[in-house]
Amino acid sequence: MLEERTGLKPISEVAIKEMQEKLDHKCKPISGLGKLEILADKIAGIEGTVDIKTNKRRCLVFAADHGVEREGVSATPRNVTYLQAVNMMAGHTTVAAIAKANHCSVQVVDIGIDADVNDPKVLNRKIRKGTTDILKGPAMTRGEAEKAIQIGYDVAQQAIDEGNQVLAIGELGIANTTISSAIIAVMLDEPVSDVVGRGSNISDRRMQHKVDVIEEAIAKWQPNAADPIDVLSKVGGFEIGGKLVP
Q1: 3-state DSSP call for residue 134?
Q2: What is the pLDDT of residues 10-22, one digit of tens each?
Q3: Separation between Cα atoms, residue 225 and residue 115, nearest integer Å
Q4: Under 8 Å between Cβ of 138 and 234
């Protein structure tokens, strides 16, 4: 089913076994490379061969704003999403520095930044300028949620078609810890207070406000944990959808 829908092949258990056998016959103690061997096995399984190649790699960063930021859940203003997207493509962020040190290209994808981004280095796939404040309404329509997922798939496929053998996926968006906490609380059926964090190092008072906002949004829109797209549409974010693969 997965291969029919996406063209992606299942993980090859045969390749994993062959890779481990190949490693075990190297001049070293068995399992002597630790987690590096586990990683090699996984990559072999994904690629379906022990002749793995990781020379060309790209970091895809999906960027979008969240309407819930207007509720004061973050100590950082929303315009930082735009600023960091531009800075990242200029090489002036931690992600850019780490990527450069590891010979990895970076591509920021504007999937919903609440600003007109005129930097040609930022890939424009904007659905709209930020999601709806989840206290005022569902974050997005179901159609927009599906579109976000499709954009992520298309951008990843383009990167693969351009010869990239490893993709690192990330996201950028002020108030995204509020959104991600809401999703986790719903999907795992856990109390919001157990999964929410301080994000931008917020105060105790703002932390409680953040919990209250998430709890109220979940109570209002009743996202269905059995339907991940419903959860994404009601309390999610465009950039989170972009990180998913249909």
Answers
A1: coil
A2: 899 999 999 999 9
A3: 32
A4: yes
